[in-house]
Amino acid sequence: MDTKLAAVSISILAWFLLLTGCEEKVESFNLSIDNFYGVEGFTLHYDVSPGVFRVRLTDDFDSPEKHPWESELSSEQSKAIAILLEKLPLETLEDEYDNPNVDDGLQLTFRIRRGNESLRTIELRNRYQKDLFAIIEIINEIVPDDYAIRFDQGSVTVGDPEE
User: Fold this and answer.
1) Quick check: pTM over 0.70?
2) CA 9, chain centre distance (Å)
Protein backbone atom coordinates (compact mmCIF):
# COMPACT_ATOMS: atom_id res chain seq x y z
CA MET A 1 0.00 0.00 0.00
CA ASP A 2 1.49 3.35 -0.94
CA THR A 3 2.06 6.05 1.69
CA LYS A 4 -0.69 8.39 0.44
CA LEU A 5 -3.32 5.63 0.50
CA ALA A 6 -2.21 4.50 3.97
CA ALA A 7 -2.51 8.09 5.30
CA VAL A 8 -6.02 8.42 3.84
CA SER A 9 -7.02 5.04 5.33
CA ILE A 10 -5.77 6.06 8.78
CA SER A 11 -7.56 9.40 8.52
CA ILE A 12 -10.84 7.68 7.56
CA LEU A 13 -10.42 5.17 10.40
CA ALA A 14 -9.74 7.99 12.89
CA TRP A 15 -12.89 9.87 11.81
CA PHE A 16 -14.91 6.65 11.94
CA LEU A 17 -13.73 5.91 15.50
CA LEU A 18 -14.37 9.50 16.57
CA LEU A 19 -17.88 9.60 15.13
CA THR A 20 -19.01 6.09 16.05
CA GLY A 21 -17.97 6.11 19.51
CA CYS A 22 -14.62 5.26 20.74
CA GLU A 23 -16.48 6.58 23.78
CA GLU A 24 -14.71 9.64 24.96
CA LYS A 25 -15.36 10.33 28.64
CA VAL A 26 -17.75 13.24 29.15
CA GLU A 27 -16.33 15.80 31.53
CA SER A 28 -18.25 15.92 34.78
CA PHE A 29 -20.85 18.66 35.05
CA ASN A 30 -23.97 19.58 36.96
CA LEU A 31 -26.53 21.98 35.56
CA SER A 32 -29.60 23.04 37.46
CA ILE A 33 -32.13 25.59 36.23
CA ASP A 34 -35.03 26.78 38.38
CA ASN A 35 -37.87 28.22 36.29
CA PHE A 36 -40.02 30.18 38.74
CA TYR A 37 -43.64 30.90 37.86
CA GLY A 38 -44.38 33.49 40.54
CA VAL A 39 -48.04 34.23 39.81
CA GLU A 40 -48.90 30.53 39.51
CA GLY A 41 -46.91 29.70 42.64
CA PHE A 42 -44.75 26.88 41.30
CA THR A 43 -41.21 26.20 40.09
CA LEU A 44 -39.97 23.73 37.50
CA HIS A 45 -36.47 22.49 38.37
CA TYR A 46 -34.30 21.09 35.58
CA ASP A 47 -31.46 18.88 36.89
CA VAL A 48 -28.93 17.73 34.32
CA SER A 49 -25.75 15.70 34.72
CA PRO A 50 -23.94 13.30 32.37
CA GLY A 51 -26.36 10.55 31.46
CA VAL A 52 -29.51 11.83 33.20
CA PHE A 53 -32.03 14.66 32.98
CA ARG A 54 -34.79 15.19 35.55
CA VAL A 55 -37.61 17.70 35.84
CA ARG A 56 -39.01 18.33 39.32
CA LEU A 57 -42.00 20.45 40.31
CA THR A 58 -42.38 22.30 43.61
CA ASP A 59 -45.03 24.79 44.66
CA ASP A 60 -45.70 27.44 47.28
CA PHE A 61 -48.58 25.47 48.80
CA ASP A 62 -46.63 22.81 50.72
CA SER A 63 -47.53 20.09 48.23
CA PRO A 64 -45.12 17.16 47.98
CA GLU A 65 -42.43 17.54 45.34
CA LYS A 66 -43.39 15.91 42.04
CA HIS A 67 -41.12 14.29 39.47
CA PRO A 68 -43.08 14.64 36.21
CA TRP A 69 -40.29 13.74 33.76
CA GLU A 70 -36.96 11.95 33.71
CA SER A 71 -34.83 10.64 30.88
CA GLU A 72 -31.47 9.11 30.30
CA LEU A 73 -29.25 11.29 28.14
CA SER A 74 -27.49 9.70 25.22
CA SER A 75 -23.73 10.03 25.17
CA GLU A 76 -24.14 12.53 22.31
CA GLN A 77 -26.56 14.67 24.34
CA SER A 78 -24.29 14.54 27.41
CA LYS A 79 -21.30 15.44 25.25
CA ALA A 80 -23.15 18.36 23.60
CA ILE A 81 -24.13 19.80 26.99
CA ALA A 82 -20.62 19.27 28.39
CA ILE A 83 -19.08 21.09 25.40
CA LEU A 84 -21.59 23.94 25.68
CA LEU A 85 -20.87 24.35 29.40
CA GLU A 86 -17.11 24.08 28.83
CA LYS A 87 -17.26 26.95 26.31
CA LEU A 88 -19.46 29.05 28.61
CA PRO A 89 -17.49 32.13 29.76
CA LEU A 90 -18.43 31.71 33.44
CA GLU A 91 -15.63 34.02 34.56
CA THR A 92 -17.06 36.99 32.66
CA LEU A 93 -20.79 36.40 33.09
CA GLU A 94 -22.58 38.66 35.55
CA ASP A 95 -24.28 37.21 38.63
CA GLU A 96 -27.58 38.74 37.58
CA TYR A 97 -29.29 39.83 34.36
CA ASP A 98 -32.43 41.74 35.26
CA ASN A 99 -34.96 43.88 33.44
CA PRO A 100 -36.42 46.05 36.21
CA ASN A 101 -39.16 47.25 33.85
CA VAL A 102 -40.96 43.86 34.02
CA ASP A 103 -42.50 42.63 37.28
CA ASP A 104 -43.18 39.03 36.26
CA GLY A 105 -42.25 36.84 33.31
CA LEU A 106 -39.09 34.84 32.75
CA GLN A 107 -37.34 34.19 36.08
CA LEU A 108 -34.55 31.62 35.90
CA THR A 109 -31.77 30.64 38.27
CA PHE A 110 -28.85 28.77 36.68
CA ARG A 111 -26.50 26.71 38.85
CA ILE A 112 -23.53 25.45 36.90
CA ARG A 113 -20.61 23.29 38.00
CA ARG A 114 -17.96 22.14 35.53
CA GLY A 115 -15.74 19.32 36.75
CA ASN A 116 -14.23 20.28 40.10
CA GLU A 117 -14.83 24.02 39.67
CA SER A 118 -16.87 25.97 42.19
CA LEU A 119 -20.61 26.16 41.71
CA ARG A 120 -21.67 29.29 39.82
CA THR A 121 -25.17 30.77 40.28
CA ILE A 122 -26.61 33.23 37.75
CA GLU A 123 -30.05 34.90 37.90
CA LEU A 124 -31.83 35.75 34.64
CA ARG A 125 -35.00 37.84 34.78
CA ASN A 126 -36.61 39.08 31.58
CA ARG A 127 -33.28 39.86 29.98
CA TYR A 128 -31.54 38.22 27.02
CA GLN A 129 -28.05 36.81 27.53
CA LYS A 130 -26.84 34.80 24.52
CA ASP A 131 -24.78 32.21 26.42
CA LEU A 132 -27.61 31.41 28.84
CA PHE A 133 -30.15 31.30 26.02
CA ALA A 134 -27.92 28.73 24.26
CA ILE A 135 -28.41 26.53 27.33
CA ILE A 136 -32.18 27.11 27.18
CA GLU A 137 -32.20 26.08 23.50
CA ILE A 138 -30.45 22.76 24.15
CA ILE A 139 -32.71 22.08 27.16
CA ASN A 140 -35.79 22.72 25.01
CA GLU A 141 -34.51 20.29 22.35
CA ILE A 142 -34.41 17.49 24.94
CA VAL A 143 -37.46 17.95 27.18
CA PRO A 144 -41.03 17.25 26.05
CA ASP A 145 -42.86 20.34 24.86
CA ASP A 146 -44.89 20.49 28.10
CA TYR A 147 -41.68 21.22 30.03
CA ALA A 148 -39.97 23.58 27.59
CA ILE A 149 -38.70 26.85 29.03
CA ARG A 150 -41.05 29.43 27.55
CA PHE A 151 -40.81 33.18 27.51
CA ASP A 152 -42.48 36.17 25.91
CA GLN A 153 -39.89 37.62 23.56
CA GLY A 154 -41.51 41.03 23.93
CA SER A 155 -40.66 41.12 27.64
CA VAL A 156 -37.07 39.88 27.30
CA THR A 157 -34.77 42.84 26.69
CA VAL A 158 -31.49 42.78 24.83
CA GLY A 159 -28.72 44.66 26.56
CA ASP A 160 -29.25 47.20 29.31
CA PRO A 161 -32.98 47.97 29.77
CA GLU A 162 -32.09 51.44 31.08
CA GLU A 163 -30.57 52.52 27.72
Assistant:
1) yes
2) 38
Report the residue count for the chain.
163
The helix/strand/coil state of 19 is: helix
Whether pLDDT at 114 is above 90:
yes
Amino acid at 40: E
Taking 80 as the threshold, does the pLDDT of residue 66 lie above it? yes
Asked if 51 and 79 count as a contact pair (C-beta separation under 8 A), the reply is no
Burial pattern 138-162, b for ≥16 Cβ within 10 A else e, equals ebeebbeeebebebeeebbbeeeee
Q: Which domains are present in the chain? A: 25-158 (3.30.1560)
List helix spans (H) across 44-162: 75-87, 130-142
Compute the distance between CA of residue 25 and CA of residue 113 in angstroms, rounded to an integer.
Answer: 17
